[in-house]
Recover the amino acids of this structure.
């Protein structure tokens, strides 16, 4: 049995997961983002509760995976930094290894989600890219069936490639990043800025924009389609750089299915490098399937791929 721990700024979720990616028990404790020592205790306590839920002892667990926001160095077993949690080269593997005799892996949460999708639904592809559209835009890259982590685990920050030189200010401090245009936060601010039918809505989220566009409200169609176009432009760059066999789009907005995917596929088919050369394969683009469990399942699957 494997344990996956999904560490976020508000909650730490843990689950016992079997080899097929089924979640057998779950537990959740409050996050302690202000102190890394308190955060480690929260992770450990979430793990123990999940084990208790499945009736497991420590001897039943062969691997524990920890997924967190931020830059994680799995070679050293540390979490170097996160914007919303007070990590400071926090020695996560050492902490867990002192308490349980199992393999311990530490990875960025989006990399974990990528690994979960790949391990369960990747069909053994050699190359695979996962893009998470949410508050930001995250990514996970699998090359030759292994996670590509880069120097100190810093790879896969696809949201910070430049889409518009000198464009919108991004949360990272740079201008024109893909994230500033293609995140769901950007979709929501596009809608607010557009006004019109959106002025009447008490709260706007990604789904509200898609729903309004579905009802045929012209300003909603304009905002939705403009946003999808920005998503597609970044996806096309990723296809040109990596030409993965598969590219999976995750985040709650991926539940929009073909409404989101069809225009992205069309854009990539029309604009990717050598798109019209016979015999050059095109990346298969689809929506994520794991959804809410992606963090836990992906962390539990880390031992397979990193
Ligand atoms: Zn950025």
């Amino acid at each position: 049995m494997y344990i996956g721990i999904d560490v976020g700024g508000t909650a730490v979720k843990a689950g016992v997961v079997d080899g097929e990616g089924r979640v057998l028990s779950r537990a959740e404790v409050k996050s302690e983002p202000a102190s890394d020592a308190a955060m480690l205790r929260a992770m450990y306590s979430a793990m123990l509760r999940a084990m208790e839920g499945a009736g497991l002892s420590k001897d039943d667990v062969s691997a524990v995976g920890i997924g967190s926001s931020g830059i994680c160095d799995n070679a050293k077993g540390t979490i170097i930094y996160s914007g919303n949690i007070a990590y400071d080269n926090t020695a996560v593997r050492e902490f867990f290894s002192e308490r349980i005799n199992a393999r311990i892996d530490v990875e960025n949460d989006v990399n974990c989600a990528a690994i979960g999708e790949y391990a369960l639904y990747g069909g053994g592809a050699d190359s695979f890219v996962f893009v998470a559209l949410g508050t930001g835009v995250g990514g996970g890259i699998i090359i030759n069936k292994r996670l590509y982590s880069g120097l100190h685990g810093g790879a896969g920050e696809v949201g910070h490639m430049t889409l518009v030189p000198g464009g919108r200010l991004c949360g990272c401090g740079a201008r024109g990043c893909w994230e500033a245009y293609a995140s769901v936060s950007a979709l929501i601010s596009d809608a607010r800025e557009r006004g019109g039918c959106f002025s009447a809505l008490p709260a706007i989220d990604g789904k509200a924009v898609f729903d309004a566009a579905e009802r045929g409200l012209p300003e909603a169609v304009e905002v939705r389609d403009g946003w999808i176009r920005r998503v597609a432009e970044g996806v096309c760059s990723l296809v040109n750089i990596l030409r993965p066999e598969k590219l999976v789009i995750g985040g709650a907005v991926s539940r929009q299915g073909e409404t989101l995917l069809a225009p992205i596929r069309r854009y990539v088919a029309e604009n990717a490098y050598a798109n019209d050369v016979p015999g050059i394969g095109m990346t298969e683009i689809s929506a994520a399937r794991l959804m809410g469990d992606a963090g836990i399942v992906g962390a539990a699957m880390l031992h397979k791929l990193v």
The radius of gyration is 20 Å. The domain at 2-116+293-305 is CATH 3.30.420.40 (Nucleotidyltransferase; domain 5).
